[in-house]
Task: inverse folding
């Protein structure tokens, strides 16, 4: 883990020297600045985890300084150190600087150490949250791309399906699709045109209820695979037709069959 940096801002040199002596053995880098302007210059050039600022400084107060830090470096944890612990100063610092802690002068050495450790932990949490948020954004962007690809594929598949249905509907030979369970799932337009007697066929009907026993036996033999010949000569409403029945499988799984009726010349 990279060493963290603490920035202390105070216009009193003796205060900064005291903080350096107090924190010289801690496991982080301590840098100082004599004003808010100087502190902002440091922040512009160096990554800082925690800023501890005096409240009453010339030209720029601690509240004004930390307000700019909040705007430019929101993940930098901010602490006010002031010898004037009146309620108005505290409230103003909280509202404008979004401070994490308010410490008073003279300070308690152990309180300073504990507060800085807590601030460093808070900074780590903010960094983890930022990284997690960024990771979620990247994952969401990738998910959005995958969804778009899926929508494109579905769109293309739907177009292909519609086209296939149009082609099937326009074939001048009566075609009937039958599921593995013997249920009618497809009837093209040529069935109605060439065999008006079959116009009452409804999707979802059982093959044995829609056709003659002769056709039912042909389809049943086709589905079961007991009859190797895929073409039969049948009588359909007094007309001789060739019934072409083709089994449809997916590997070893039976999906159904297609029955095509061709009137003999």
Result:
């Amino acid at each position: 883990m990279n060493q963290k940096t603490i920035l202390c801002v105070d216009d009193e040199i003796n205060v900064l020297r005291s903080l350096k002596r107090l924190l010289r053995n801690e496991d982080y880098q301590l840098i100082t600045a004599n004003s808010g302007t100087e502190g902002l210059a440091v922040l512009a050039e160096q990554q800082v985890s925690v800023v501890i600022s005096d409240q009453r400084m010339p030209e720029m107060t601690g509240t004004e300084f930390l307000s700019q830090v909040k705007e430019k470096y929101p993940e930098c944890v901010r602490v006010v150190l002031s010898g004037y612990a009146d309620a108005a100063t505290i409230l103003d610092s909280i509202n404008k600087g979004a401070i994490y802690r308010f410490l008073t002068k003279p300070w308690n050495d152990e309180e300073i150490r504990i507060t800085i450790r807590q601030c460093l932990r808070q900074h780590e949490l903010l960094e983890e949250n930022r990284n997690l948020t960024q990771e979620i954004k990247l994952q969401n962007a990738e998910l959005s791309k995958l969804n778009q690809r899926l929508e494109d594929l579905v769109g293309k598949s739907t177009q292909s399906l519609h086209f296939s249905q149009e082609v099937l509907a326009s074939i001048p030979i009566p075609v009937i699709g039958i599921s593995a369970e013997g249920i009618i799932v497809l009837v093209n337009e040529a069935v109605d045109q060439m065999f008006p007697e079959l116009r009452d066929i409804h999707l979802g009907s059982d093959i044995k209820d829609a056709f003659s026993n002769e056709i039912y036996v042909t389809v049943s033999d086709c589905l079961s695979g007991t009859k190797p010949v895929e073409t039969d000569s049948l009588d359909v409403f007094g007309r001789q037709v060739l019934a072409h029945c083709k089994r449809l499988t997916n590997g070893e799984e039976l999906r159904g069959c297609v029955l095509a009726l061709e009137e003999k010349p």
In short: The CA atoms of residues 66 and 97 lie 5 Å apart. The beta strands are 5-9, 29-33, 50-54, 77-82, 101-104, 175-179, 184-187, 231-236, 239-250, 253-263.
